[in-house]
Amino acid sequence: MRQQLVQQAALGGNIQTGMEDMIARYDEKFGLNQPLWKQYVTYLKDTARLDFNVSITSYPIPVMKIIRDSMPWTIGLLATAIIISWTIGTLLGAFMGWPRSPKFLDYLMPPLLSLNAIPFFLLGLVLVYVFAFRLRWFPLLYGYSPGTFPEWSWSFAKDVLNHSVLPALSIILVSLGGWAVSMRSMMVTTTGEDYVVFADAKGLKDRTIFVNYSIRNALLPQTTALALALGQLIAGTVIVEVIFSYPGIGKTLYGAIRGSDYFLVQGIVFMLILAISTATLILDLIYPLLDPRINYSRN
Prior knowledge:
The chain has eleven helices and no strands. The chain is an all-alpha fold. The protein has a domain at 83-249.
């Protein structure tokens, strides 16, 4: 805390008097003058109530208010990009693994794998240079135009959508290849199973075999892979938001780390872990819809 106050004082360019009194007031405010065990118990109680104290760099704004202001931007960007990339990648992989699919789909695999090997932030820089700096099709930075006040209107929604195209595109293009490859491998394995061969021998239509027998059984491992990849996707999104100065939780976390705002860092990390756990639980509950053989109720 002493170091933080000295840094804040140095920003003003003047020597601050009464620094010791200020440090004592801050220690009392944040409970740092109490025994360590009591600080830990207080921390656990506050965490259970989602109370992470106030931000050091944005004092006296509470940490949860900063998270609430930033989280919708990240949820909107990340949820949309993940759903689009997972859906398109899964469909592409399913068609690539189906023996009766068009042969031109095989030529999509090399570019998809090449994009999958590029980090999120590096592809984001390339997209910024090409589509924002050179072609000027999309804005360079931010989540909406500077000077615009957020409001519920079609014009503001269009402005936000225009600013979110490049960040979302960097996540989608990188993720497509991974989902396509994993789904293709599942489809190749599934099409060799006895029940698929038997369905083909019975004379069922190709569409019925493709949808009801192959894709449906290959979706379960693909959904599990999505649950396992959520942490990596969120980590990549954090850097993407920094690249585009997107007003989401990633940019907020980056600013908190640079400013040594420990309360804000702890709050953001805890909320990210909670969000990933909740999303994984939701995906786990969806399993019975994909495969009725999975039943959580006791017989």
